[in-house]
Amino acid sequence: MSKSPKKKASSSSLVASSPGHSPKKEASSVVSASESPEEPKKILISLWPEWSDTEVNAEKWDATKASKENKLFDDPEGKVELPASLRIHTWKRPSEYILNKTPVVVDNKSAFDLTSANEHLLSSELIRWVISEFYILWKVYNTGDDKAVSTETVPNLWRPWEHIYSLCKAEKDHMPLYNAYGKYVIKLYWMGSWRKITVDDMLPFDKDDNLLLPATTNQSELWPMLLAKGILKVASTDIPVSGSGREIGDFTVIHCLTGWIPEIIPLKSWYTGKIWEFLRNNIPQFQLEEESSEEKSTTTDSNVNEIKSESPTVLKSRATGPIPQMVVCASYQPLHLLEKRTSVLTRMADSSESLRQYGLSQLFSHPVLLTCTRDCPLVAPPKEPPVPQWKLIRPRKQTNITDEPKEPTVQKPEQFIEVSSPFINFKLMTMAAHDIEDDHTRNDITQSSLNTLDINETTQVTAEDKKKDDSIANEGVESTPGPDKEIDGKDKERVQTAKESSAAFLQSQDALASDKPLLLETWVDLHNFTKCFQTLLIFHKPNTYAHQCKTSHFKNSVSSRLSAAALSNAVASTHSVAAPARQPDLNGIAYTQSADGRGTHFLFVDNPLPTEIVVGFSAIVHWGEGVEEKKESSTRPGSLTAKPFSWKSIASELPVAQIQTTASKAVLLSLPPGRHVLHVHTSASFSVHIHLCSMSPFVFGDEETVMPHLDKESLRFCEQAVMIVRALGRVISCFSDPEELPSTTKELEKTHGVGIQQQGVFNEAVYHMFCSALGRKLTSEELFAVQTLTGDPLPHGSNDKAMDARSDDTPERWNGRQATDKEMQAATVLQAGWKGYLVREILTAARPGTKENLSVAKTLQEMWAPVESEMEKHAVSLLRHMVVNGEGIAELYPCREDEYNRITFTDYSVPIPEAANSWILIFREVFHVPKNMLLVPKIFSPFPVCIVHVINNDTLEEIPRVFNRVEPYIYTPNKGGYTFVAEAHTGDSPVIGGQWRMRLIGSREPLPQLARETPSNIFSVKELKGYYIPNQKNIICRHVIKVSSDHSATVQFQTSKSDVYIKLSILDHEKEVASSQGKGHVTIPVYCFLASNGGSVAQAGARQDQGSLTAEGRVTGGGGGKEGSDQHPKDTLFHKYYIQAEVLQESWPLDESLSSFIQKLRDIERSEMRVFGDILDGASTSLDTDQQNKEGHKSAPKSTHKAKEREKDKQASKSSSIMDQSLDVSKPHWILRVVSDHSEAESIEVKKDTERLEEIRAMKLAWEAAEPGRAAKAHQTRLRYLKELQEHAESKEPAAETDTQPQSQQSGEFTQNTGNNYIDYTPFIRKSLPQPRLKDEEVEEEQRRERSEKFQSFRLIWDNILEQRKQEKIARKEMMKRQLETYIGFQDTMDAYRQKMLQARDAFRSRTLEGVSHKKMEEPPIETVEQVELEKNPTVVQSSGRGGKKK
Fold first, then answer.
1. Residue 440 pLDDT greater than 60, yes or no
2. Could you write out the three-class secondary structure of 263-284?
């Protein structure tokens, strides 16, 4: 068992904050909520071990240590982590706060009450779920015979304290005892098995000295606290959804206590009909017994509970047969006040309002149990009184006089669901804040000061209070009439529900001291059900399913001890039923566990009926994290995805089931009839567990487990075939019955369903079925009987051997000659006459009552006996023959969909050779395909990178690959077959060995045949290495291939730099015959090199039959690029092969730091090209006299001869030294590998291409032989020229210094250009071939083809340029159009603003003018004013007049 590294106690998910507890006399410790003292480091142990009765029986409880050493037991995992809403202040032992009497684990064995004494804990959602699910399990298991909650007929008693073990043996009906040492063992279900969880008896208290764990009214009873501590440990592995305001995620207490698989279904209002049907089919149904009219007349609507007691009800379940048992619950989310989304707040408000109608509160969310459904009234309506007979004579019609049309009232069907909960009508006034001072915990519902009141006072309710509550409930419901101001059926039910709930609540207050727990019931309308509750919790009981399968996967960081029984079982479905959930027996369940962390499984189902599989999924998403670390970390939930899968297709289907959970969740997988294969992928941070349950058989596991089951025919195919054969048998049984024969014949035609055009295929299939059943060819009587049965005179391909024997008896004079027209006409007349006779005989024998009919019927009965003995086998062969040979017949049957998942396969395995290379060739074999078939190769390799190439040997084309995997491909028969080549990249890790396996998957047999008996992987590798020297042609290396016989080889090339684009080519006479491109490495999977001799053509044909690649075409390598030209003609007698590697796109740049190393390599190459190096070095010193030249001429022939031998030895030594020396891996280098069969390794030779160098050397030697001393003279002339050039340049330097700066620059440039630069005239010189070649028609055709290719490439480039210009022109037009539209838009906007401004100005102007006009109209004219003044003062006017005249 692996252990995690040491962490602080505060950082563990299973360890709560502990204040450095020291095991001394005082066991308690106090920690303030604000303080954070340094915690001692705790070692996080591994996963809780699986439960074992033997280990528990041998457990040392160490009860004596408590009295001797005063050292009590402390949980090694630390303190239990409590919800954030509960503030821990003190940890105490039971002996510290229970002083009056001795603590006990169990005091009351008949009942318990967990609500009265735990009101201060109900602010925690997790504690409410624990209490509610305790009550739910108690009701499910311990309900009497008068009312059944689930479909279980015989209830099993469940006692919660039986999960606790202390000072007792692990046996049935054990009783745990109080352990003074403080050590207890809890048995809980987690991650697919029952676990042993050890806890101590340290109990948390708050600052008001209230116990923070559930407790009964008897404070000395310890089982609720101990069991809650174990549950809180398991719950700490769950993580709630971030931002949801919840304390738990998908964790359920019922799953932890029983092992039932929880399925969580969200409730939506638009699925109300489906929800109602599901609940009616899976939980009991409320029904009324028929009563007499006298009993019903005495009942009233005043008290619903009294009606229930007086009129007994019957709870029936619609389930019949072995239907799986399940428990159905519902839950709703707590009130989250910090929610910002308006839609969520609206739903929360509606849910809160609906919950209040039924006595529930959204502040205290918890699961409720759904006990039954009801579609009838609680009280049967009274029967109408009998009508007297005299009133039935001419009865009056009741008329309603009104002037408005009367709409018919639509009565809503009664659909109610009974829910049970301990918190129905729970007094909200008794609940208050837990701690008013903690303002930062706004989401927590706290306790008020009413907590100090006595509990007995709150439970005393007088009769008057009851009446008041009833009247308030009645008034509250009846004061809200409907639109028609009439109380409809729904309001009546609401009244009854309110009465029932209030009465039940009042009774519950009086029953606190009773022997039964408080679990109240109320009826919820289906319409409000989806408003009140958000999720439906369905707990499936695994032990009631006929077939189960479990599998677990733990990563290396987390391990678990597995039981021996669990490990011994294989992954498969089982027909045995396990033991009850409380004591499961894993021997009847398929169970596997692995520690490799794989998350890929396959599920196979083949069922002619619809299949339902419960898929339970558990995940550990965090381990060893504290509360703060969990908040900060963004842990992804575990996920499970199930998709339809087929090995014959690479298309990805949509998932049919998805699960995301942080604890445990299930989904019901519903599959239609037929054969299905699902790919199940799981992922989680630490570990996963999958549990599958179904009433139908299935297979679950890896590929090795599932694939062998896919080779058989599907069940639907077999059923369809058996139906056809049985219909055929009924025809044979009544073949002589004139009354039954027509109907059975029509039934047979309806069963097989083929048309008239495909009738011949069915007749031929019947013939082959009888031949297979009898194991021989049919006799003439049997053949005639089959022809009569099918009504077809054709021979159905029978008597082939007899026909072959007849062909051998042909007279000699007919051999080698063709029949004349008269002979053909005569034969046609004879055949027509014989066919007519046969048809008449068949019609006579098919007529019931004739002698021939009786004989045929007897023969058919005798032939039918062996068919009937193995009916399914022969039926499958009949239908398979029809499907294979008849086009479109498979579409007539529903089983055609099952062919998608039918496969057959065969494996080919070879041992992996031990090699030190980073690349190895593992497999290379040739397969021959007999007919068209779909094949998929699948590789099982220990290497991380293993690539398979499939080459068509006739065309040299490679089968396409997708993500380095060969895609499903339809292989057609060819002459050379297909070569399968597998290469592996090992990287830096050494190859230790192992087994490599290739699986060929096809639809049906026969599969491809191997060219030889067994595959072999013994190869010979010729490896060549070298440094990379950049050059103008971008050629990395070039090697010559010489073969003595036809040879198949694989060529691989790789570079030291992984991102270099390279091209590997095979040339024949400088003509590319195969090529491949890649990045960093490239492979030509296989190529056949032909020998250069006269018999190569015949050998090539023979090798081609064996599967070697000799056809024309191209090869695609590991890089994926496909290039190359046509291969050489097959009639070529001389071959000259080269292997050449090139750098593409200048993708191998070298650093400047390597320049000296590259120059050194170039000097070595340059020295290899020198022929007379020693002579030239000696002759360079003698340049003066002719005597020295003569001596040089005389000594030249001797030295030339010696130079030849010396140069050959020097070249060989240099080349060998460069190749043999170990490469410096830090320098740019390459590796070339040529792999061939070990038996043919001697027939191939690979060496460096030095042909050009040898030609230059031979040319120089020839010149020296023709003119001795030529090399020395040329060398002296060159030295003389260089010396003169240097002197000429030095003489011009003083003159250049007196000139101006521009002239000096120009002259310097001219001198530099004339002195140092050498003009290359080679592009302007016409090139010549090394050997003269006659320009014939073939050469002209080749030149013409080259010119046409150049023209075509230029035309293609030109067309591309024109197209690009056209697109640019269109783009410019579009841009201009957009600019114009933008300008028009701006102009319109400006016009609008301008018009608006003008309108405002005009309005202001009009208002101004209007005001002026009004003012003018109000003022009198000036003339009128003057006239009035003159009339008033005429003397003033006259005096003014005289004065004017006087002046």
1. no
2. EEEECCHHHHHHHHHHHHHHCC
* pLDDT score for 556: 57
Q: Which carries the bigger pLDDT value, residue 815 or residue 1015?
A: 1015
User: Per residue in 684-711, pLDDT tens?
Assistant: 888 899 999 999 999 999 999 999 999 9
- C-alpha 805/C-alpha 810 separation (Å) is 9
Q: Are strands 326-331 and 687-694 parallel, antiparallel or unpaired?
A: unpaired
Beta strands, E only, 608-711: 611-620, 638-644, 657-661, 664-671, 674-683, 687-694, 699-701
Compute how many other C-beta atoms are within 10 angstroms of the C-beta atom of residue 819. 11
Listed residue (35, 369, 433) closest to 208, CA to CA: 433
Position 60 scores a pLDDT of: 87
- 1184 pLDDT higher than 70: no
More confident site: 40 or 166: 166
Cα 1279 versus chain centre, distance: 77
Give the tens place of pLDDT for each residue, 817-867: 788 888 888 888 888 888 888 889 889 988 988 899 999 999 999 999 999
SS (H, E, C) 1179-1221: HCCCCCCHHHHHHHHHHHHHHHHHHHHHHHHHHHHHHHHHHHC
Secondary structure (DSSP) of 843-867: HHHTSTTSHHHHHHHHHHHHHHHHH
Provide the pLDDT for residue 1063. 94
Question: What are the backbone dihedrals phi and psi of residue 1442, each rounded to the nearest 5 degrees, phi first?
Answer: -70, -40
Q: How far is CA 237 from CA 85, 92, 128, 132, 190, in A?
A: 18, 25, 18, 21, 10
Q: What is the 3-class SS of 369-436, one letter each residue?
A: EEEEEECCCCCCCCCCCCCCHHHHCCCCCCCCCCCCCCCCCCCCCCCEEEEEECCCCCCHHHCCECCC
Q: What DSSP letter does each residue of 1112-1169 carry, written as one string?
A: SS----TT-B----PPPPTT-----EEEEEEE-TT-----GGGHHHHHHHHHHHHHHH
- C-beta atoms surrounding 886 within 10 Å: 20
Q: Average pLDDT for residues 779-789, to the nearest whole number?
A: 90
For residue 468, what pLDDT is reported?
37
What pLDDT, on a 0 to 100 scale, did the predictor assign at position 1326? 64
Task: Quote the distance between the C-alpha of residue 1102 and its chain's center.
Answer: 48
For position 323, what pLDDT does the model report?
62
Burial profile 1339-1360: b = 16 or more Cβ within 10 angstroms, e = fewer:
eeeeeeeeeeeeeeeeeeeeee
Interhelix angle for 871-885 vs 715-733, to 10°?
A: 100
The DSSP result for 308-371, as a single string, is HHHS-EEEE----SSPPPEEEEEE-PPP-TT---HHHHHHHHHHHHHHHHTT--TTS---EEEE
Which of 14-23, 970-979, 1192-1201, 1392-1401 shows the lowest per-residue confidence on average (mean pLDDT)? 14-23
- Give dist(CA 97, CA 27) in Å, integer: 12
**Cα 928 to Cα 976, 1047, 1236, distances in angstroms:** 8, 20, 21
Q: How far apart are CA 529 and CA 283, in angstroms?
A: 16
Give dist(CA 1260, CA 1173) in Å, integer: 12
Where on the phi/psi map is residue 1107: left (φ > 0), alpha (ψ -120 to 50), or beta? left
Mind listing the pLDDT tens digit for each residue in 197-210?
Answer: 999 999 999 999 99
Residue 478 in this model has a pLDDT that exceeds 60: no
Confidence at residue 1323, expressed as pLDDT on a 0 to 100 scale: 66
Which residue in 132, 140, 142 sits closest to 111, CA to CA?
142
Per-residue burial over 834-857, b if 16 or more Cβ lie within 10 Å, else e, is eeeeeeeebeebbebeeebbeebb
The residue-averaged pLDDT of 1214-1236 equals 74
Going from the C-alpha of 724 to that of each of 145, 717, 782, the distances in angstroms are: 51, 11, 21
Phi and psi angles of residue 303, each rounded to the nearest 5 degrees, phi first = -140, 110
- Asked if 1138 contacts 1070 with a C-beta cutoff of 8 angstroms, the reply is yes
